[in-house]
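Notes to self after the call with IL:
- keep both proteins in one doc
- input above output, always
- annotate only the second one for now

Protein 1:
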Amino acid sequence: MQSCKAKGKRQEAKGKSERALSSIFTFCLLPVSFCLPFNLQAQRIKVALDGSGDYRTVQAAVDAAPAAGAVIDIAPGLYYERLRIEKPSITFKGLGKSPADTILSYDLSSGTAGGTTKSASVTVTGDDFHAENLTIENTFSRNRPLTQEGSQAVAIKVMSDRAIFRRVRFLGYQDTLYADGKGCDSDQGPCRPARQYFVDCYIEGNVDFIFGDAVAFFESCELHGLAHKQVMLSAQSKRYDGEQSGYVFDHCRVTAEAGADHIWLGRPWRSHASVVFMNTELPAQIEPAGWSEWMHNEKPSLPTVFYAEYHNRGPGAKADARDPHARQLTAEEAHKFSAAVWLAGDDHWNPAGNQKDKTK
């Protein structure tokens, strides 16, 4: 017969063990993208150029991370390295006071690397990638003139599903941010979608500087046009009518430096491009027609794209002058492009959390 005292000790020990496990796994009842940051002790790695962290390079920290992922804290500094993140649930967190303090940088181009995709300073294929409070850049064109071929220089290519970028600066010129899906078997499909959420970010460039076929939502971001004779904010590449693909810009702001006098909301990289600008401040440099043509197979693409706006403002928000193929959404139509709806997928992902539906 067990004594009450011995039984009580075993129950107490069992309770402590369960509480310890609970502290690690409780949050993993939520979608995986919310689990990792709470498991701080077992999966946190620090990178610092001066050797005060666990590693001096970001790639070394990524390589050392567990297969289930890690939070990688990155001390302020300029990290000149080409990064590839294939593991799931990797989080980059800049430790500086602002995103400008921690910079991930490289300087390849399509000409020097052997293709646009290969030029990326950072390539992310692992799902549930997060980045916060840092800068990702490609400096190839900083001191070189743009040419017709070979100047594409990607700062980051993202093929991650459920990726989140918060307070990140993306710096480049042509093809800065490659927000892409997971790939297609052919131009007729099937394609595998990747959902990506960008909030409070700064993205700059000149030609097609946000491009690809991700299901992407940009909230409260600044899109900054750099000097060029024709600035294209987007070059979305949805391939066919039924593909899950498209960009939504909500409560964003378009700005321009001197010399960026002719800015287009986008042009279709592929014939079913899908882009929506909502509640966004548009400067006078926006071309009245809004959207530029890009011929494919000697056929116009604007008749088959989905280009739309809703409640934009500023001197560039000239709804009556837009290309006739573009449309102005109703409130009911705009709701379908709210973050909670647009990014939901089968797992009901909602990275915007408790934020209100601002399209209403």
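Protein 2 (the one to annotate):
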Amino acid sequence: MRLLSVLITPNPTLSPYGAERTCIELMSELTRLGVHAYTLERQPAFGRTHQLNFQSFEVPRDVFSGSLSMIRISLIALRLCLRLKCDAIYAYGDYMEKSFLPAYFASVITRKTFLTSVLDDAKRHVDSKGFFGLMKYSYRRHRRSMLGYVAFHLIRRFGFRTSCVALAATDQMANYAKEVLRARRVVVIGRGLEDVWFTPTSQTKKYDAIFVGRIHPAKGVGILLDAWSKVVSKRKESKLLVVGSGPYLPEAIEKSRRLGISENVAFEGYVSDRMSMRDLLSASKILVLPSMVEGFARVVAEGLACGLPCILSDIPVLREVYGEVGVFVPKDDSVGYSRAILTLLENDELRRIRGQKGLTFVSRFKWPVVARKMIDAMNR
């Protein structure tokens, strides 16, 4: 079986976070199981820079300039699909326009199986609108690119309802695909973790807590900083490590200064190396993820694999996946987060028990199981 994955991020500066890393690791596992897996990516390809075991093809940078860029990317995907004699085409994210449309058009022309991952429900406010509601919303929010925005969402909806196999990590995302996107076929495949995350390390606990993710309001970084200022008022030397990049990073740094906790918060930036990321997690006492929206939150699984108790926002998808092991706080409750953080920091035995329970729980997240479910979805 031959599978082409279209892994083209919305912009050239986007670092590979959960969705991109999941796609890369899934392609690698499919290759180990005998699938001829390929990716089509921006330059430089994530697959190539991460030295994995599948072949990556790159879209030249100049293709992305001009009004016809989407057509040119789609033609590249189509030619590649025909040359490789692919049996299926996969778009790594359902609302990643530059991945979804080329993959979908290539699948329609070649009449091959089309699959896409339903990442999260961040677009619920758009997906729940009818045609006129979508037009009105796009006129208010995307006036300069209104026609393109509307066309993408209409094609995306048509694809889900006619030919797409929607892949979901959780039942919550599967229900979203069925009820809101009205997908014709939905398969829950879960998520996996590489063995490297389960390798013990002997890191000194330099940080009291760690956050990992894009620096964006949807990830709740501002709420975490508010909570951390309350933690610092009780424990003056408490140290928070924020790992990640994004357009709101300067704003987050400035907020830490305004709150008077700049000495208690370290901003690490984006970390691409898995070993380095594992070491940073292992050097922390707890992981905090106050996200407003998630599709699976693989960083929580990575934190659990490193033995960290995890404090999470109380949203349905995180309850579904991590309900057995997470400490849950209402998503906009900074006081609640500070209390949960202080409770764990002040009780070493509680942290140890929760860390061990989480490690046992997360051992079920295996890539071979996920990859075989995807192979079954392609074969049906």
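Annotation: The chain has a mean pLDDT of 91. DSSP finds 16 helices and 13 strands in the chain.
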